[in-house]
Design brief:
It comes from Thioclava electrotropha. The protein is 51% helix and 10% strand. The longest helix is centred in the first third of the chain and has 30 residues.
Protein backbone atom coordinates (compact mmCIF):
# COMPACT_ATOMS: atom_id res chain seq x y z
CA UNK A 1 0.00 0.00 0.00
CA UNK A 2 1.33 3.48 -0.89
CA UNK A 3 2.00 5.62 2.16
CA UNK A 4 3.37 9.13 2.64
CA UNK A 5 5.24 10.62 5.61
CA UNK A 6 1.99 12.34 6.64
CA UNK A 7 -0.08 9.19 7.06
CA UNK A 8 -0.20 9.93 10.78
CA UNK A 9 -1.68 13.35 10.11
CA UNK A 10 -4.49 11.74 8.16
CA UNK A 11 -5.15 9.26 10.96
CA UNK A 12 -5.37 12.10 13.49
CA UNK A 13 -7.64 14.24 11.32
CA UNK A 14 -9.93 11.30 10.57
CA UNK A 15 -10.06 10.33 14.28
CA UNK A 16 -10.96 13.88 15.30
CA UNK A 17 -13.63 14.05 12.60
CA UNK A 18 -15.19 10.86 14.00
CA UNK A 19 -15.03 12.19 17.58
CA UNK A 20 -12.83 9.33 18.83
CA UNK A 21 -10.38 9.76 21.67
CA UNK A 22 -6.81 8.71 21.15
CA UNK A 23 -7.02 6.10 23.90
CA UNK A 24 -10.20 4.60 22.39
CA UNK A 25 -8.65 4.24 18.94
CA UNK A 26 -5.44 2.82 20.41
CA UNK A 27 -7.34 0.21 22.39
CA UNK A 28 -9.44 -0.79 19.38
CA UNK A 29 -6.27 -1.04 17.27
CA UNK A 30 -4.46 -3.13 19.91
CA UNK A 31 -1.60 -0.66 20.42
CA UNK A 32 -0.69 1.72 23.23
CA UNK A 33 -1.94 5.28 23.30
CA UNK A 34 1.67 6.49 23.47
CA UNK A 35 2.57 4.63 20.29
CA UNK A 36 -0.54 5.96 18.51
CA UNK A 37 0.46 9.47 19.59
CA UNK A 38 3.86 9.00 17.93
CA UNK A 39 2.19 7.72 14.80
CA UNK A 40 -0.24 10.65 14.61
CA UNK A 41 2.67 13.07 14.84
CA UNK A 42 4.44 11.27 11.97
CA UNK A 43 7.27 10.07 14.18
CA UNK A 44 6.75 6.38 13.52
CA UNK A 45 6.29 4.44 10.30
CA UNK A 46 3.10 2.39 10.02
CA UNK A 47 2.97 -1.14 8.68
CA UNK A 48 0.26 -2.31 6.30
CA UNK A 49 -1.19 -4.60 8.97
CA UNK A 50 -1.41 -1.77 11.51
CA UNK A 51 -3.02 0.58 8.99
CA UNK A 52 -5.67 -2.07 8.34
CA UNK A 53 -6.37 -2.41 12.08
CA UNK A 54 -6.59 1.36 12.58
CA UNK A 55 -8.81 1.76 9.51
CA UNK A 56 -11.02 -1.08 10.71
CA UNK A 57 -11.38 0.54 14.11
CA UNK A 58 -12.50 3.79 12.46
CA UNK A 59 -14.66 2.06 9.84
CA UNK A 60 -12.85 3.52 6.82
CA UNK A 61 -11.08 2.06 3.80
CA UNK A 62 -7.37 1.50 4.59
CA UNK A 63 -6.28 3.25 1.39
CA UNK A 64 -7.86 6.50 2.56
CA UNK A 65 -5.21 6.68 5.28
CA UNK A 66 -2.36 6.39 2.77
CA UNK A 67 -1.40 8.37 -0.25
CA UNK A 68 -2.99 6.00 -2.73
CA UNK A 69 -6.50 7.41 -2.46
CA UNK A 70 -5.19 11.00 -2.63
CA UNK A 71 -2.55 10.67 -5.32
CA UNK A 72 -4.87 12.23 -7.90
CA UNK A 73 -5.49 15.18 -5.58
CA UNK A 74 -1.75 15.71 -5.13
CA UNK A 75 -1.21 15.60 -8.90
CA UNK A 76 -4.11 17.96 -9.55
CA UNK A 77 -2.94 20.51 -7.01
CA UNK A 78 0.61 20.37 -8.32
CA UNK A 79 -0.74 20.96 -11.82
CA UNK A 80 -2.66 23.98 -10.54
CA UNK A 81 0.52 25.40 -9.01
CA UNK A 82 2.44 24.74 -12.23
CA UNK A 83 -0.28 26.55 -14.19
CA UNK A 84 -0.01 29.50 -11.81
CA UNK A 85 3.75 29.63 -12.29
CA UNK A 86 3.35 29.45 -16.07
CA UNK A 87 0.86 32.32 -15.99
CA UNK A 88 3.32 34.27 -13.86
CA UNK A 89 6.00 34.02 -16.55
CA UNK A 90 3.71 35.93 -18.88
CA UNK A 91 4.58 39.15 -17.07
CA UNK A 92 2.29 41.97 -16.01
CA UNK A 93 0.92 43.12 -12.67
CA UNK A 94 -1.17 40.00 -12.23
CA UNK A 95 1.99 37.96 -12.34
CA UNK A 96 3.41 39.86 -9.40
CA UNK A 97 0.34 39.26 -7.29
CA UNK A 98 0.37 35.58 -8.26
CA UNK A 99 3.97 35.32 -7.11
CA UNK A 100 3.16 36.77 -3.69
CA UNK A 101 0.26 34.37 -3.25
CA UNK A 102 2.10 31.26 -4.51
CA UNK A 103 1.09 28.22 -2.42
CA UNK A 104 3.56 26.24 -0.35
CA UNK A 105 4.18 22.94 -2.13
CA UNK A 106 5.90 21.46 0.92
CA UNK A 107 2.56 21.48 2.80
CA UNK A 108 0.43 20.09 -0.03
CA UNK A 109 0.06 16.69 1.64
CA UNK A 110 -0.93 18.28 4.92
CA UNK A 111 -3.58 20.35 3.13
CA UNK A 112 -5.01 17.28 1.37
CA UNK A 113 -4.96 15.28 4.57
CA UNK A 114 -6.73 17.93 6.62
CA UNK A 115 -9.13 19.30 3.98
CA UNK A 116 -9.79 16.57 1.40
CA UNK A 117 -13.10 18.06 0.26
CA UNK A 118 -11.54 21.49 -0.40
CA UNK A 119 -8.62 19.81 -2.21
CA UNK A 120 -11.02 17.87 -4.40
CA UNK A 121 -12.94 21.06 -5.21
CA UNK A 122 -9.74 22.86 -6.26
CA UNK A 123 -8.62 19.92 -8.38
CA UNK A 124 -12.01 19.78 -10.12
CA UNK A 125 -11.85 23.52 -10.81
CA UNK A 126 -8.34 23.13 -12.18
CA UNK A 127 -9.46 20.31 -14.47
CA UNK A 128 -12.38 22.44 -15.68
CA UNK A 129 -10.06 25.40 -16.29
CA UNK A 130 -7.69 23.23 -18.32
CA UNK A 131 -10.64 21.93 -20.35
CA UNK A 132 -11.88 25.46 -21.09
CA UNK A 133 -8.39 26.57 -22.06
CA UNK A 134 -8.28 23.78 -24.61
CA UNK A 135 -11.70 24.88 -25.90
CA UNK A 136 -10.48 28.47 -26.29
CA UNK A 137 -7.38 27.29 -28.13
CA UNK A 138 -9.53 25.13 -30.41
CA UNK A 139 -11.93 27.93 -31.27
CA UNK A 140 -9.09 30.42 -31.69
CA UNK A 141 -7.49 28.02 -34.13
CA UNK A 142 -10.82 27.45 -35.86
CA UNK A 143 -11.49 31.19 -36.16
CA UNK A 144 -7.98 31.76 -37.51
CA UNK A 145 -7.77 28.86 -39.95
CA UNK A 146 -11.25 27.64 -40.91
CA UNK A 147 -11.81 29.06 -44.44
CA UNK A 148 -15.60 28.82 -44.23
CA UNK A 149 -15.75 30.83 -41.03
CA UNK A 150 -13.34 33.43 -42.37
CA UNK A 151 -15.28 33.83 -45.60
CA UNK A 152 -18.64 33.96 -43.83
CA UNK A 153 -17.48 36.55 -41.31
CA UNK A 154 -16.00 38.64 -44.13
CA UNK A 155 -19.35 38.49 -45.96
CA UNK A 156 -21.20 39.57 -42.82
CA UNK A 157 -18.86 42.53 -42.25
CA UNK A 158 -19.07 43.53 -45.92
CA UNK A 159 -22.87 43.48 -45.88
CA UNK A 160 -23.06 45.41 -42.61
CA UNK A 161 -20.66 48.06 -43.93
CA UNK A 162 -22.67 48.47 -47.13
CA UNK A 163 -25.93 48.80 -45.19
CA UNK A 164 -24.42 51.35 -42.84
CA UNK A 165 -23.02 53.47 -45.69
CA UNK A 166 -26.27 53.41 -47.68
CA UNK A 167 -28.38 54.24 -44.64
CA UNK A 168 -26.07 57.12 -43.73
CA UNK A 169 -26.51 58.63 -47.20
CA UNK A 170 -30.31 58.45 -46.92
CA UNK A 171 -30.31 60.01 -43.45
CA UNK A 172 -27.78 62.77 -44.10
CA UNK A 173 -28.97 63.85 -47.58
CA UNK A 174 -32.21 65.82 -47.34
CA UNK A 175 -32.82 66.70 -51.02
CA UNK A 176 -31.96 63.38 -52.60
CA UNK A 177 -33.70 62.71 -55.89
CA UNK A 178 -36.48 60.09 -55.93
CA UNK A 179 -34.61 57.99 -58.50
CA UNK A 180 -31.47 57.80 -56.30
CA UNK A 181 -33.56 57.23 -53.20
CA UNK A 182 -35.15 54.22 -54.91
CA UNK A 183 -31.71 52.91 -55.87
CA UNK A 184 -30.44 53.25 -52.30
CA UNK A 185 -33.51 51.53 -50.91
CA UNK A 186 -33.02 48.71 -53.41
CA UNK A 187 -29.39 48.41 -52.29
CA UNK A 188 -30.51 48.17 -48.68
CA UNK A 189 -32.94 45.41 -49.60
CA UNK A 190 -30.29 43.46 -51.55
CA UNK A 191 -27.66 43.80 -48.82
CA UNK A 192 -30.20 42.81 -46.18
CA UNK A 193 -30.99 39.64 -48.12
CA UNK A 194 -27.29 38.91 -48.54
CA UNK A 195 -26.67 39.46 -44.85
CA UNK A 196 -29.55 37.25 -43.77
CA UNK A 197 -28.49 34.50 -46.18
CA UNK A 198 -24.88 34.56 -44.99
CA UNK A 199 -25.94 34.61 -41.35
CA UNK A 200 -28.30 31.68 -41.94
CA UNK A 201 -25.53 29.67 -43.60
CA UNK A 202 -23.14 30.48 -40.77
CA UNK A 203 -25.65 29.46 -38.11
CA UNK A 204 -26.37 26.25 -40.00
CA UNK A 205 -22.65 25.49 -40.18
CA UNK A 206 -22.27 26.01 -36.44
CA UNK A 207 -25.42 23.98 -35.71
CA UNK A 208 -23.88 21.00 -37.50
CA UNK A 209 -21.23 20.84 -34.83
CA UNK A 210 -21.54 18.35 -32.01
CA UNK A 211 -23.26 19.64 -28.88
CA UNK A 212 -19.95 19.30 -27.03
CA UNK A 213 -17.82 22.39 -26.66
CA UNK A 214 -15.32 21.26 -29.29
CA UNK A 215 -17.89 19.92 -31.72
CA UNK A 216 -17.53 18.39 -35.14
CA UNK A 217 -17.76 19.82 -38.62
CA UNK A 218 -15.54 18.14 -41.21
CA UNK A 219 -15.80 14.54 -42.48
CA UNK A 220 -12.41 13.80 -40.94
CA UNK A 221 -13.64 14.93 -37.52
CA UNK A 222 -16.74 12.79 -37.90
CA UNK A 223 -14.54 9.79 -38.68
CA UNK A 224 -12.34 10.47 -35.67
CA UNK A 225 -15.36 10.76 -33.38
CA UNK A 226 -16.67 7.41 -34.62
CA UNK A 227 -13.29 5.73 -34.15
CA UNK A 228 -13.01 7.23 -30.68
CA UNK A 229 -16.42 5.89 -29.76
CA UNK A 230 -15.33 2.43 -30.95
CA UNK A 231 -12.05 2.59 -29.04
CA UNK A 232 -10.09 2.74 -32.34
CA UNK A 233 -10.35 -1.05 -32.59
CA UNK A 234 -12.78 -3.28 -34.48
CA UNK A 235 -12.77 -6.88 -33.23
CA UNK A 236 -15.11 -7.74 -36.11
CA UNK A 237 -12.18 -7.27 -38.51
CA UNK A 238 -9.83 -9.62 -36.66
CA UNK A 239 -11.38 -12.81 -37.99
CA UNK A 240 -12.03 -11.45 -41.47
CA UNK A 241 -15.20 -11.83 -43.48
CA UNK A 242 -16.97 -8.74 -42.08
CA UNK A 243 -18.16 -6.23 -44.65
CA UNK A 244 -17.08 -2.69 -43.67
CA UNK A 245 -20.47 -1.45 -44.83
CA UNK A 246 -22.10 -3.37 -41.99
CA UNK A 247 -19.97 -1.52 -39.43
CA UNK A 248 -20.62 1.86 -41.02
CA UNK A 249 -24.38 1.49 -41.40
CA UNK A 250 -26.29 3.41 -38.78
CA UNK A 251 -23.25 5.07 -37.17
CA UNK A 252 -24.62 8.41 -35.89
CA UNK A 253 -21.18 10.05 -35.93
CA UNK A 254 -20.82 9.52 -39.70
CA UNK A 255 -23.37 12.14 -40.69
CA UNK A 256 -22.07 12.87 -44.20
CA UNK A 257 -21.39 10.69 -47.22
CA UNK A 258 -17.81 11.94 -47.27
CA UNK A 259 -17.28 10.74 -43.70
CA UNK A 260 -18.72 7.33 -44.57
CA UNK A 261 -16.36 7.09 -47.54
CA UNK A 262 -13.39 7.91 -45.31
CA UNK A 263 -14.59 5.28 -42.82
CA UNK A 264 -14.83 2.66 -45.56
CA UNK A 265 -11.24 3.29 -46.66
CA UNK A 266 -10.01 3.22 -43.07
CA UNK A 267 -11.72 -0.10 -42.33
CA UNK A 268 -10.29 -1.66 -45.48
CA UNK A 269 -6.74 -0.68 -44.42
CA UNK A 270 -7.35 -1.89 -40.88
CA UNK A 271 -8.60 -5.24 -42.20
CA UNK A 272 -5.46 -5.58 -44.35
CA UNK A 273 -3.30 -4.77 -41.32
CA UNK A 274 -5.14 -7.35 -39.23
CA UNK A 275 -4.53 -10.05 -41.85
CA UNK A 276 -0.82 -9.24 -42.07
CA UNK A 277 -0.43 -8.90 -38.30
CA UNK A 278 -2.86 -11.29 -36.55
CA UNK A 279 -3.96 -10.18 -33.12
CA UNK A 280 -2.77 -13.05 -30.90
CA UNK A 281 0.72 -13.34 -32.45
CA UNK A 282 1.13 -9.55 -32.28
CA UNK A 283 0.19 -9.43 -28.60
CA UNK A 284 2.60 -12.31 -27.88
CA UNK A 285 5.38 -10.51 -29.77
CA UNK A 286 4.65 -7.30 -27.87
CA UNK A 287 5.00 -9.13 -24.57
CA UNK A 288 8.32 -10.59 -25.76
CA UNK A 289 9.89 -7.70 -27.69
CA UNK A 290 8.14 -4.69 -26.19
CA UNK A 291 6.66 -1.87 -28.32
CA UNK A 292 9.58 -1.84 -30.78
CA UNK A 293 8.14 -1.29 -34.28
CA UNK A 294 11.42 -2.21 -35.98
CA UNK A 295 11.66 -5.57 -34.24
CA UNK A 296 7.98 -6.27 -34.92
CA UNK A 297 8.36 -5.40 -38.62
CA UNK A 298 11.30 -7.83 -38.84
CA UNK A 299 9.41 -10.54 -36.95
CA UNK A 300 6.36 -10.42 -39.25
CA UNK A 301 8.17 -9.32 -42.45
CA UNK A 302 5.83 -6.39 -43.10
CA UNK A 303 6.45 -2.69 -43.87
CA UNK A 304 7.18 -0.49 -40.88
CA UNK A 305 4.27 1.87 -41.62
CA UNK A 306 1.88 -1.08 -41.41
CA UNK A 307 3.27 -1.96 -37.96
CA UNK A 308 2.77 1.62 -36.78
CA UNK A 309 -0.85 1.60 -37.92
CA UNK A 310 -1.48 -1.81 -36.38
CA UNK A 311 -0.07 -0.83 -32.99
CA UNK A 312 -2.36 2.21 -32.90
CA UNK A 313 -5.38 0.03 -33.67
CA UNK A 314 -4.84 -2.71 -31.07
CA UNK A 315 -7.40 -3.12 -28.28
CA UNK A 316 -6.88 -1.16 -25.08
CA UNK A 317 -4.46 -2.73 -22.63
CA UNK A 318 -1.97 -4.03 -25.20
CA UNK A 319 1.44 -4.49 -23.47
CA UNK A 320 3.62 -1.40 -23.33
CA UNK A 321 1.48 0.85 -25.52
CA UNK A 322 -0.54 2.85 -22.99
CA UNK A 323 -2.81 5.10 -25.04
CA UNK A 324 -0.95 5.47 -28.35
CA UNK A 325 -1.42 8.20 -30.90
CA UNK A 326 -1.05 8.07 -34.67
CA UNK A 327 -0.82 10.74 -37.35
CA UNK A 328 -0.56 10.29 -41.11
CA UNK A 329 0.19 12.99 -43.67
CA UNK A 330 0.56 13.19 -47.42
CA UNK A 331 3.38 14.84 -49.36
CA UNK A 332 1.91 18.31 -48.81
CA UNK A 333 2.15 17.86 -45.04
CA UNK A 334 -1.62 17.79 -44.58
CA UNK A 335 -2.73 15.50 -41.77
CA UNK A 336 -4.99 12.87 -43.31
CA UNK A 337 -5.46 10.81 -40.13
CA UNK A 338 -5.26 11.80 -36.46
CA UNK A 339 -5.47 9.78 -33.30
CA UNK A 340 -4.44 11.99 -30.40
CA UNK A 341 -2.36 10.58 -27.57
CA UNK A 342 -3.18 12.14 -24.16
CA UNK A 343 -1.13 15.33 -23.86
CA UNK A 344 0.00 15.35 -27.51
CA UNK A 345 -1.86 18.26 -29.08
CA UNK A 346 -3.00 17.85 -32.68
CA UNK A 347 -4.13 20.87 -34.73
CA UNK A 348 -7.60 20.69 -36.22
CA UNK A 349 -7.28 23.28 -39.01
CA UNK A 350 -3.86 24.91 -38.87
CA UNK A 351 -0.67 23.35 -40.22
CA UNK A 352 1.13 21.21 -37.66
CA UNK A 353 4.52 21.94 -36.11
CA UNK A 354 7.30 21.62 -38.73
CA UNK A 355 9.60 20.11 -36.10
CA UNK A 356 7.56 16.91 -35.82
CA UNK A 357 9.52 13.78 -36.79
CA UNK A 358 6.61 13.08 -39.16
CA UNK A 359 7.82 15.84 -41.47
CA UNK A 360 11.46 14.92 -41.09
CA UNK A 361 10.46 11.48 -42.38
CA UNK A 362 9.01 13.07 -45.52
CA UNK A 363 12.45 14.44 -46.35
CA UNK A 364 14.09 11.05 -45.68
CA UNK A 365 11.94 8.46 -47.52
CA UNK A 366 12.11 4.87 -46.29
CA UNK A 367 14.47 5.83 -43.44
CA UNK A 368 12.94 5.06 -40.01
CA UNK A 369 13.15 7.84 -37.44
CA UNK A 370 12.87 7.45 -33.68
CA UNK A 371 12.84 10.59 -31.54
CA UNK A 372 12.04 11.72 -28.02
CA UNK A 373 9.94 14.88 -28.13
CA UNK A 374 8.69 17.37 -25.55
CA UNK A 375 5.25 18.72 -26.46
CA UNK A 376 4.81 22.37 -25.46
CA UNK A 377 1.89 23.26 -23.22
CA UNK A 378 0.95 24.42 -19.77
CA UNK A 379 2.72 21.28 -18.52
CA UNK A 380 5.17 20.01 -21.19
CA UNK A 381 4.92 16.26 -21.74
CA UNK A 382 7.43 13.83 -23.22
CA UNK A 383 6.72 11.20 -25.87
CA UNK A 384 8.61 8.59 -27.87
CA UNK A 385 7.81 8.80 -31.58
CA UNK A 386 8.45 6.48 -34.52
CA UNK A 387 8.08 7.86 -38.03
CA UNK A 388 8.61 6.63 -41.59
CA UNK A 389 7.51 7.75 -45.05
CA UNK A 390 6.91 5.53 -48.04
CA UNK A 391 6.41 6.34 -51.73
CA UNK A 392 3.20 5.39 -53.50
CA UNK A 393 3.87 5.15 -57.27
CA UNK A 394 0.92 5.96 -59.53
CA UNK A 395 2.31 4.31 -62.65
CA UNK A 396 5.27 4.74 -65.00
CA UNK A 397 4.21 8.18 -66.14
CA UNK A 398 2.44 9.36 -62.98
CA UNK A 399 3.87 11.26 -60.02
CA UNK A 400 5.22 9.48 -56.95
CA UNK A 401 3.05 10.34 -53.95
CA UNK A 402 4.50 10.25 -50.43
CA UNK A 403 2.74 9.25 -47.23
CA UNK A 404 4.35 9.59 -43.79
CA UNK A 405 3.18 7.82 -40.64
CA UNK A 406 4.12 8.59 -37.02
CA UNK A 407 3.31 6.52 -33.95
CA UNK A 408 3.20 8.39 -30.62
CA UNK A 409 3.88 6.50 -27.40
CA UNK A 410 4.40 7.63 -23.79
CA UNK A 411 8.10 8.15 -23.12
CA UNK A 412 9.75 5.38 -21.07
CA UNK A 413 10.51 6.28 -17.46
CA UNK A 414 14.24 5.78 -18.02
CA UNK A 415 14.24 8.55 -20.64
CA UNK A 416 13.29 11.28 -18.17
CA UNK A 417 16.79 12.80 -18.21
CA UNK A 418 17.57 12.15 -21.88
CA UNK A 419 17.70 15.06 -24.34
CA UNK A 420 14.48 15.55 -26.31
CA UNK A 421 13.34 17.64 -29.25
CA UNK A 422 11.03 20.53 -28.28
CA UNK A 423 7.93 20.63 -30.47
CA UNK A 424 4.45 22.15 -30.41
CA UNK A 425 1.03 21.60 -31.94
CA UNK A 426 1.07 24.49 -34.42
CA UNK A 427 2.67 27.91 -34.44
CA UNK A 428 -0.64 29.65 -33.78
CA UNK A 429 -1.06 28.14 -30.30
CA UNK A 430 2.54 27.22 -29.42
CA UNK A 431 4.06 29.06 -26.42
CA UNK A 432 7.68 28.47 -27.50
CA UNK A 433 9.01 31.87 -28.54
CA UNK A 434 12.53 30.86 -29.52
CA UNK A 435 11.76 28.32 -32.23
CA UNK A 436 13.61 27.99 -35.55
CA UNK A 437 10.50 26.64 -37.23
CA UNK A 438 8.08 29.42 -36.23
CA UNK A 439 5.96 30.68 -39.13
CA UNK A 440 3.79 33.24 -37.34
CA UNK A 441 3.39 34.81 -33.88
CA UNK A 442 1.50 32.80 -31.30
CA UNK A 443 -1.74 33.90 -29.67
CA UNK A 444 -0.57 32.49 -26.31
CA UNK A 445 2.13 33.82 -24.00
CA UNK A 446 5.73 32.67 -24.43
CA UNK A 447 6.40 30.27 -21.54
CA UNK A 448 10.09 31.15 -21.62
CA UNK A 449 9.64 34.92 -21.55
CA UNK A 450 9.74 35.20 -17.80
CA UNK A 451 12.77 32.92 -17.49
CA UNK A 452 14.97 34.63 -20.06
Amino acid sequence: MARSPLTGTRIRERRNALGLKQAELARASRISAAYLNLIEHNRRRVSDALIERIAGAMGVDPVTLGEGAEGALFAGLREAVASLELAETGGGNSAGSASQAAPDLERIEEFVGRFPAWAALLVNRQARLAELERVVETYAERMAQDPFLLTSLHEVLSAVTSLRSTAAILVETEDIEPEWRARFLNTIQEESLRLSGTAEALVGYLDEMETAETGLSSPQEQLEAWLEARGWHFPELEGGGTDPAELIAGAPELASSAARELARGHLQRQAEDARALPLDPVLAALAELGPDPGALAARFAVPLAQVLRRLAALPAGAPGLGQPGLVVCDGSGTLTFRRAAPGFLLPRFAAACPLWPLYEALARPMQPIRALVDMAGRLPQRFLTYAVSEPRPTGFDGPVLMRATMLILPAPAQSADAPARPIGASCRICPRGECPGRREPSIVADASAGRA
